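tokens incoming
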């Protein structure tokens, strides 16, 4: 009797997986797009290898969409605005992808609101794609791989990519470095409340919308819009081609929301005519390069054996107050660089 030998299947070819997925995405297959976003969000080394090949292969088919970032404090009605705005866009013949970044649970690590229930009508529309992602440990209101998710959605044929930030406050400025136009949605506020809106995020906004201009808040919203409009004149505009506007809207009733599409069109035209649009895209690509270098260096630093063997010891000393953070950093950097003396930091 001859023994049967079982040969194990060869490992999947990363290049083939990336090519197959890219082909499906370029055909506009939603399931493939969802799988691709999951892939790029994975931190597994084998998944990262496939993801990088995938992004390289679809890169020539990206860059034509309009990228819109939407931020604002909790309670401003961002999701209600995005749904109404998206539905108006679909009526104009646009194809819209929404990358909704949700807060992450520090205990469980998952997204607290990781579903599409806040934009139920838009999520059912054939011309829309909504993807919630967890912010994880990232600050700045976006997820770790939002930039790559934008490229995937563009390759799938969506002409407007909306990035909705976490909505946790003033730190949400990272999104402005990866979109073309930054919209700030605010609830009605006036007087002393206006002082709570820091200059940082206001200076990044290309359009400010005072939401909830309906019912008993209608007059209050219009007064707030007038106060913000006066305040915005104290801020130096980011572009000589564009004066930031402030307007009251009602996402609930749809008043003023459809006109935002015209604002975006005027903004893009103004910046394209002077070349600012293309220069901004190039600057964002450079910023993404530097961010990737920083992340890769930190990963390599932490995984280097010479650092890994000392890291927890040095960390404990710093936590206990027996070693300063600067001294601990010099020691670990010296170990990383293979130097006998720690360089200054």
């Amino acid at each position: 009797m001859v023994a049967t030998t079982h040969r194990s299947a060869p490992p999947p070819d990363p290049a083939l997986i990336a090519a197959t997925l890219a082909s499906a995405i370029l055909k506009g297959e939603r399931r493939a797009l969802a799988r691709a976003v999951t892939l790029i969000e994975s931190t597994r080394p084998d998944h990262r290898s496939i993801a990088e090949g995938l992004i390289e292969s679809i890169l020539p088919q990206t860059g034509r969409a309009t990228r819109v970032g939407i931020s604002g404090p909790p309670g401003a009605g961002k999701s209600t605005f995005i749904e109404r705005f998206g539905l108006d866009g679909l009526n104009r013949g646009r194809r819209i992808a929404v990358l909704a970044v949700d807060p992450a649970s520090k205990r469980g690590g998952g997204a607290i609101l990781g579903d599409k229930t806040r934009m139920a009508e838009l999520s059912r529309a054939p011309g829309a794609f909504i993807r919630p992602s967890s912010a994880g440990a990232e600050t700045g209101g976006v997820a770790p791989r939002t930039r790559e998710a934008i490229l995937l959605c563009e390759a799938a044929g969506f002409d407007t990519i909306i990035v909705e930030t976490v909505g946790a406050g003033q730190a949400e400025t990272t999104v402005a470095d990866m979109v073309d136009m930054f919209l700030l949605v605010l609830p009605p506020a006036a007087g002393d409340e206006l002082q709570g809106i820091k200059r940082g995020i206001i200076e990044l906004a290309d359009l400010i919308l005072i939401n909830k201009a309906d019912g008993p808040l209608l007059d209050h919203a219009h007064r707030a819009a007038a106060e913000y409009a006066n305040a915005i004149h104290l801020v130096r505009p980011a572009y000589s081609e564009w004066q930031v506007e402030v307007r009251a809207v009602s996402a609930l009733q749809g008043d003023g929301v459809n006109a935002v599409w015209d604002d975006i069109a005027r903004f893009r035209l103004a910046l394209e005519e002077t070349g600012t649009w293309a220069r901004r895209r190039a600057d964002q690509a450079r910023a993404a390069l530097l961010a990737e270098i920083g992340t890769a260096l930190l990963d390599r630093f932490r995984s280097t054996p010479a650092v890994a063997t000392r890291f927890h010891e040095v960390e404990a000393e710093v936590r206990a107050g027996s070693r300063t953070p600067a001294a601990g950093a010099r020691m670990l950097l010296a170990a990383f660089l293979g130097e006998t003396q720690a360089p200054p930091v």
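note: Residues 105-115, 137-141 have pLDDT under 50 and may be disordered.
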